[in-house]
Structures are given as C-alpha cells and as structure tokens.
C-alpha cells in the first residue's frame, strides 16, 4: 500500500524521474522532510493546484519544486536541474507563488497558533516548567532579520541597522521549538515596536488585566519589562538571586535562538546570502517555512 502511495506516473514527473524513488535519506536531504509528510501535502493541495490545461505542471511537480526552493535557497535558476525536473524559470516563479499562497491558506491557522484556551496554555506552561524555575511561561520571543531584495516603494523603511534590506520577523516558540507566532515588519522597525503593535501583545495584556492566570513571555533586553514580559537583569552580581534568575532566564530563552538556527539551516531561502525576491509585505515564504519547521518538529518528536 505504501509503495502504491509513492508510485507516481512517469508522465506526471517529467523525463521518467520520480523523486519518491530516491532513498529515504536522499529524499530528506533534498526536501528536508520525509516522503509521507510531503505526500500528504501534495494530496491536501491537489484540489486547489490541479490545472485543466494539458501542458500544466502536475501538482507533484509544483509542490516538490517549491519545497526544493525553500530548502536550497536557490532563487528559481537551477531548481529544475537540481530536481532533475526540467522547468523554465518563469514557470518556477509562478509555481512558487501559487504553491506558497495555497499552502498558507490550507495550513497557517492549523500549524502556527498561540495558545487560545486554558488547556493549551496549561500544556505549554507545564512543559516550560520542566526546565525553568518559574511557572506560567507561554513562549520565548525574539526577532530575526530575513534579507529581501530592495523594494521599489518605501525602500529606506526596509534597511535595517546592519545596512541591508530585510524583514524584521517576530517569532515565539514553545519549549519544544515549535513556532507559535510569526509577524513581519520592515527591517528598520525595532523589536519592541513590533511586539507592542501585535495581537500577541494585546492577548498577553488581556490575560494579565483579566487575571487569567499568571503567564509570561521570555524576551531579551531589547524588550521593555512588563508584568507579562520577563527580561534578563543586566550586570547582576554573581551569586545573587538576580544573577541566578538571569542565568535561568537566558538558558530557557535560548530555545528561540535555536529555532532561528534550525529554521534557517533547514530552509536556506531564509539565510542572509539567499535574498528573497518576493514582495516584502506578503512575507508568505517565511510563514511557509515556519509551518514546515513545525511539521518537521512534530514528525521527529
């Protein structure tokens, strides 16, 4: 049965090449996810990606081409060669835009979600409690810069303090490195402004104001201290309670730094030397990568 699921008609994958014939190791090396996960993505997107024109790209080619782009960071050129599926650059460009948008519509709300219910909040905070000395942690928060091609409009707004154009992307993760929240602003915008402008800030303030438990986010010193935002205490004396608090805080909060490392290592289109050419206000490629990151976390936990 499993063999039948992964056997695709040779006409569908051009030149008689079927990536599902690769070994499991080589398939994951190329696409970053196991065959069963990508097969499920293909089947779920089939109703919205199927085209009626005779020469249209198959759903399999569309999905595999897009995921290989996200994984390799090669902007369109050479993807067809890398996959051994010959596709023109314009076709690849249209394919990536179509698949990433369809993928967002299908998966975003299901795979990236900050806890909304008491049970969800308790589940996340209980897992954090296994590694921290204080209860009620709902996530670790930070921002990372994703390089983009200079946009035609408001170009200066996207130039960050390091001198390159980017999106400054806020993310929150749980103790198992699942991404719970993603929000992108132009690269010149400060982390604190992104947070205070977000629905996440509104939700944390609501929980605090309405006394719905004592819940916190862990942020670095770039954030303002709030009743629901715990930040390190700088220059604390070694051995003091403040020092021990900060040491534990930094140890736990490091999970978001690990998320950024794993995310950019697995989906190389997000690395600084792989400049995204898509319109920055959409940020769909980044959210696609975050969803796929969570899928990988679930697959291996």
How is the topology of this model organized?
Elements: H1 2-6, H2 24-31, H3 35-49, H4 59-72, H5 79-82, H6 89-111, H7 118-129, E1 137-147, E2 166-173, E3 179-186, H8 191-196, H9 199-209, E4 216-218, E5 229-230, H10 241-266, H11 284-299
Parallel strand pairs: 1-4, 4-5
Antiparallel strand pairs: 1-2, 2-3
Helix pairs in contact: 3-4, 3-6, 4-6, 6-11
Family: Belongs to the HARBI1 family.
Keywords: Hydrolase, Metal-binding, Nuclease, Nucleus
Pfam families: DDE_Tnp_4
Instruction: Report the average pLDDT across residues.
Output: 88
Q: Strands of the largest sheet, in order across it?
A: 3-2-1-4-5
Secondary structure: helix percent: 40-55%
* Structural classification: alpha/beta
- Strands, total number: 5
The unreliable regions are 6-12, 76-81
| CA radius of gyration | 21 Å
Family: Belongs to the HARBI1 family.
GO cellular component, one term: nucleus
Cofactor: a divalent metal cation
Protein name: DDE Tnp4 domain-containing protein
Detailed description of the structure:
With 301 residues, the protein is an alpha/beta fold. It has two domains: 2-110; 112-281, no CATH class. Helix content is 47%, strand content 11%. The chain has eleven helices and five strands; from the N terminus they run αααααααβββααββαα. The protein has helices at 2-6, 24-31, 35-49, 59-72, 79-82, 89-111, 118-129, 191-196, 199-209, 241-266, 284-299, and strands at 137-147, 166-173, 179-186, 216-218, 229-230. It has a five-stranded mixed β-sheet with strand order 3-2-1-4-5. A hairpin with a 5-residue loop joins β2 and β3. The radius of gyration is 21 Å and the shape is globular. The two termini are 25 Å apart. Mean pLDDT is 88; it is low at 6-12 and 76-81. This is DDE Tnp4 domain-containing protein. It comes from Macrosiphum euphorbiae (potato aphid).
């Amino acid at each position: 049965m499993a063999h039948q699921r992964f056997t695709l008609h040779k006409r569908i994958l051009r030149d008689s090449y079927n990536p599902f014939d690769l070994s499991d190791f080589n398939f994951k090396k190329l696409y970053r996810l196991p065959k069963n996960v990508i097969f499920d993505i293909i089947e779920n997107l089939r109703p919205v990606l199927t085209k009626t024109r005779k020469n249209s790209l198959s759903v399999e080619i569309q999905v595999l081409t897009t995921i290989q782009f996200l994984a390799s960071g090669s902007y369109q050129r050479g993807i067809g060669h890398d996959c051994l599926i010959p596709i023109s650059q314009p076709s690849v460009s249209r394919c990536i835009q179509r698949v990433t948008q369809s993928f967002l519509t299908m998966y975003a709300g299901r795979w990236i979600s900050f806890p909304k219910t008491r049970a969800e909040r308790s589940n996340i905070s209980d897992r954090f409690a296994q590694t921290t000395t204080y209860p009620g942690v709902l996530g670790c928060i930070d921002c990372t810069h994703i390089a983009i091609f200079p946009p035609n409009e408001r170009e200066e707004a996207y130039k960050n303090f390091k001198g390159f154009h980017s999106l400054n992307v806020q993310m929150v993760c749980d103790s198992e490195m699942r991404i719970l929240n993603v929000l992108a602003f132009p690269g010149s915008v400060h982390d604190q402004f992104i947070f205070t402008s977000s629905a996440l800030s509104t939700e944390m303030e609501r929980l605090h104001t309405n006394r719905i438990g004592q819940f916190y986010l862990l942020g670095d010193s770039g954030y303002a201290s709030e009743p629901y935002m715990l930040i390190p205490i700088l220059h604390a004396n070694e051995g003091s309670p403040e020092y021990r608090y900060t040491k534990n805080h930094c140890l736990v909060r490091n999970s978001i730094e690990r998320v950024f490392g794993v995310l950019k290592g697995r989906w190389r289109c997000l690395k600084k030397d792989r400049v995204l050419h898509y319109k920055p206000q959409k940020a769909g490629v980044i959210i696609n990568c975050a969803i796929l990151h969570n899928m990988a976390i679930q697959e291996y936990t």
